[in-house]
Specification:
Number of strands: 10
Strand order of the largest sheet: 5-6-7-8
Number of helices: 0
Distance between the termini: 22 Å
Structural class: mainly beta
Largest sheet: 4 strands, antiparallel
Order of helices and strands: EEEEEEEEEE
Radius of gyration: 13 Å
Shape: globular
CATH superfamily: Rieske [2Fe-2S] iron-sulphur domain
Oligomer: single chain
Number of domains: 1
Helix content: under 10%
CATH architecture: 3-layer Sandwich
Strand content: 35-45%
Length: about 110
Amino acid sequence: MGVTLPTPGTVLKALDAIPDPGGAPADWAGTPILIVRSGSTVRAYVNVCPHQGRPLCLPSGRALVSEGRFIVCPFHGASFELETGACVGGPAGKSVLTPAPVRVENGQVIAA
């Protein structure tokens, strides 16, 4: 079963609405997308931890980014590389997050 990603050109979130380092859910009504940033690095992934299918952010929308390099699932502590989405620790094993390609343009994070 595949996921539907935003059409290229879709504005997902204002860059200044995403903590640095940190993350926030996209302002898009389709598949839940989590946008994360650390400095000039901005990535987006389907907002689902492969361990148990729970969101990678808290109900408040807050996402945990550790050391500016790792996305941490708030429910069971699985850690994923911000750059690649690969699991580097915790119960998600060798899972990889599903990427949602993005670019930053004019202060907006846009689906690529």
